[in-house]
Amino acid sequence: MDDSRDSADADRRTASADDPPTRADARELDRTDPLADLRDRFFLPEGEAYMDGNSLGLCSADAVAALDRAVEQWKTLAVRGWTDADPEWFTYGERLGDRLASLVGASGEEVVVGNSTTVNIHTLIGTFHDPDRGEKIVVNDLDFPTDHYAIRARLRAAGRDPDDALRVVESRDGRTIEEADVVAALDDDVGTVFLPSVLYRSGQLIDIERITEAAHDAGALAGFDLAHSVGVVPHDLSAAGVDFAVWCHYKYLNAGPGALAGLYVNERHFGVTPDLAGWWGHEKETQFEMRRTYTPADSAGAFQIGTPPILSAAPLDGALDVTEDAGIDALREKSLALTDFLIGLVDDRLPDCEVGTPREASRRGGHVAVEHPEAYRISEALKDRSVVVDFRPPNVVRICPSPYYVGFEDVYEVVDRLAGILADRAYERYETRGAGVT
Ligand SMILES: Cc1ncc(COP(=O)(O)O)c(C=O)c1O
């Protein structure tokens, strides 16, 4: 994040603090928004304010066109599609990796599309966590659960007790993680640090550069889960020297439910044999010689496992047209303006709610955590008023104004409905959260 963006953000916040945002402000911001037309490429759920793009991004005409093309080529080319389709299916994961590279700040060889995020955590932790470097893996207590499940499974598979091998950095406030606490957790016993770029609940953006540098100083490797930032926050993984990273494409990148995931491996690690090796990660030139021994591709492509599901990968090819046309810096700028506007409105209109997301632009991802003890029932009431948000226990309504298809007046409208629900105590007409509901 550059300084000029930080100071622009500070200016905006000062303005909103002095002057509560109005609907007229929202309309003016929409009128001057350079990305205002982007939403026309999406299928917007009719009559709904969709604020859940950090859970599942919306379908675009571009994604559908790419999927239709893949289906058509399956019909006409059948097996020849592996080599003759446009783009050829044999190197689909690598080609999509080339397109994603600039979003994460890496070279094309360092990025590939394949597997799921959870599987990628399995294979990357399994490959790179080396107890000889240090027994412990540093994680944090606000992580998305799958990260811990996968890391614990790899530790068990390696014959270690996860309770012993995991060093969990505790949040001080239940919302955020202090980078200083992560740095303080690093010592000679640590082999790997694995953190999210953006915390899934509060939306805190973690300082990847600082953590990576501190990890390296301690002789450890640094890996990140970028699920909540890729496509909305620019990254510079290679320059920071990050060792490996994973992410999904079904959130901000709008590639569809369960879309194939992405991963990054720094080029200094090329040539290692992945923990979950499979023939699709074999050196491409000799893959079809069907040798018994595995030669890893000399790229992140080695971390593919089996045949990529082309029909799940194709929508990403189209969805990336939208991202590339908009530009990641413009998307980040709009996202910050939207979340800033939202935070200003929460401060002004919702005195019973707290903003659980850091206010500084450099510490904020693409969504805002609005906290209230009745967050679950409020989320239900919002859904009945055609506002799609999600609830995250214990007290968070997550609101994600995706810069791809949400406007400032949409944000104004959502807060207006939320204010109405709180003023009428309309949420009291809903059941409290039952066991097992998330
Ligand atoms: C931070 C994070 N990691 C991983 C996942 C999910 O991984 P997978 O796509 O393998 O289900 C999510 C899902 O929301 C997430 O928020």
TrEMBL record:
Necessary cofactors: pyridoxal 5'-phosphate
Known catalytic reactions: L-kynurenine + H2O = anthranilate + L-alanine + H(+); 3-hydroxy-L-kynurenine + H2O = 3-hydroxyanthranilate + L-alanine + H(+)
A GO BP annotation: NAD+ biosynthetic process
Keyword hit for Hydrolase: yes
InterPro entries documented for this protein: Kynureninase (IPR010111), PyrdxlP-dep_Trfase (IPR015424), PyrdxlP-dep_Trfase_major (IPR015421), PyrdxlP-dep_Trfase_small (IPR015422)
Keyword Hydrolase found: yes
GO molecular-function terms, A-Z: kynureninase activity; pyridoxal phosphate binding
Subunit structure: Homodimer.
Assigned keywords, A-Z: Hydrolase, Pyridine nucleotide biosynthesis, Pyridoxal phosphate
Full protein name: Kynureninase
Associated pathway: Amino-acid degradation; L-kynurenine degradation; L-alanine and anthranilate from L-kynurenine: step 1/1; Cofactor biosynthesis; NAD(+) biosynthesis; quinolinate from L-kynurenine: step 2/3
Region: Disordered, residue numbers: 1-31
Organism, as annotated: Halogeometricum pallidum JCM 14848
Gene3D superfamilies: Aspartate Aminotransferase, domain 1, Type I PLP-dependent aspartate aminotransferase-like (Major domain)
